[in-house]
Specification:
Blueprint: H1 2-7, H2 13-21, E1 42-43, E2 49-50, H3 53-64, E3 73-77, H4 83-91, E4 94-99, H5 102-114, E5 120-124, E6 137-142, H6 151-155, E7 157-167, E8 172-180, E9 183-192
Helix pairs in contact: 2-4
Length: 202
């Protein structure tokens, strides 16, 4: 998987090391474990998916950047099975992740604990609201697609912070949003396909 990620253009050694360390097969159903390291998204129940390895690595590489402000505190919106949170935990000192679907939240929380990943705080909450009590965040990463950038989440991004998210409805694109003293700037990166961002807890 790591060799393939390099071939696909992932260059950040910290991200590649994190992808190597996290046992992806533990985060998918046992029946699908033989496909865990293929470059495909896989179902994790409740109409949700675990993103393909390339997308996880790409988004975290973009979030880290190769220059600019250091990123210490990260918010992930959409914990899902917990895989991306586990990778984030190997790259950043402090990770918060929110999941709106209760069984996924419970499973991810247990799995991260079983793996002794102790720098991730898992919350059961509506990700649309972010986590105002833990803000501001140096980085925010979204695992579901919104039509436009959430102003609520934008306000929880620190000055100098970066947000990586899919945006769009039928046609979705990955964006990098950067915040500075004058506001927000958006960079359109590549076409992607994510589940839609939904409201409320389930």
């Amino acid at each position: 998987m790591i060799a393939r990620l390099r071939d696909q253009g992932i260059q950040d050694e910290a991200v590649l090391a994190a992808m190597y360390e996290v046992p992806r097969h533990l985060f998918v159903d046992e029946a699908l474990s033989s496909r865990a390291y293929d470059d495909v998204s896989l179902p994790i129940n409740y109409d949700q998916t675990i993103s393909r390895p390339y997308i996880v690595a790409r988004m975290i590489e973009v979030l880290r950047g190769f220059s600019g402000s250091p990123i210490n505190r990260v918010l992930e919106v959409g914990t899902g099975c917990g895989y991306q949170a586990a990778v984030l935990a190997h790259v950043f000192p402090e990770v918060y992740t929110v999941e709106r679907i209760a069984p996924l939240y419970e499973r991810a929380k247990k799995l991260l604990s079983d793996l002794n990943i102790d720098n991730v705080e898992v919350r059961y909450a509506d990700g649309n609201a972010g986590l105002p009590d833990a803000a501001p965040f140096d980085g925010i990463i979204l695992a579901a697609a919104a039509p436009v950038m959430s102003q609520t989440l934008g306000r929880q991004l620190s000055i100098g912070g970066r947000m990586v998210l899919p945006m769009g409805r039928q046609e979705q694109w990955l964006y990098l949003v950067e915040r500075d003293q004058s506001g927000f700037s958006e960079s359109k990166l590549e076409q992607v396909k994510f589940v839609p961002m939904l409201m409320g807890k389930a």
